[in-house]
Amino acid sequence: MASSDMSSEPLLRATNVHKRFDSVEVLKGIDLDVAQGEVVAIIGSSGSGKTTMLRCINLLEEYDDGEIHIDGETIGYRIVGGVRKRLRESAIADQRARIGMVFQGFNLFPHMTAEQNVMLGLTKVQKMPKAEARDRAVHWLDRVGLAERREHYPYQLSGGQQQRVAIARAVAMDPRLVLFDEVTSALDPELVAEVLSVMKSLAESGMTMLVVSHEMLFVRDVATRVVFMDGGRIAAEGPPAEVMGNPSSERLRSFLGRFHGLFG
Hints:
four-stranded antiparallel beta sheet
């Protein structure tokens, strides 16, 4: 759980979250708090439920049991007469706008420039005037090091540059929480560092981040807390030095063993 000195009420609180795909239970009762300003890294093997957890938080997947709260408000549902009822799509869209998400694939619109990709959510979802949206897009593209590329289309950008546009698009919406799902895994190795550098800068600015990643040096150096998921459950959590430097189980030790030489 988040340390009590950061905030009395966590920004994100997930309580006993379960998710099934047909007969397969992918999340088996997740309890997770994230305080404002925390950078929580989720690590674990493929199939451990990491991405599914992010998608439930952002309402891209419906969770079957439990509750997820942002700023104390239940995400996606309300309880009526003891029965969970899904909110109207308009209400869910309002909630989702508070949660930014950056995906493994860049998901940019190919017929739009970098600037237009960043502006789209601002004008369509937040109904921001175009001039103001353009100013904000220019600000965030400059922040991620792409001021000179704002009129470029995705095909004119490298994978790392496209991912930085995707990050700018997410954070330009001024979300309360930003989710990062293996955002470097589709990149060539030489492009990974530029994306991680942007994420580190955002973390240092106080942005609340929940990051699924196999970039263990980044996790060790930037995360305030590490969560190890195994088989749909949280199997260990704590500060990076504790979780990664002194593994509490053979499963965690075996997972970390794939990243030779990074941990003592």
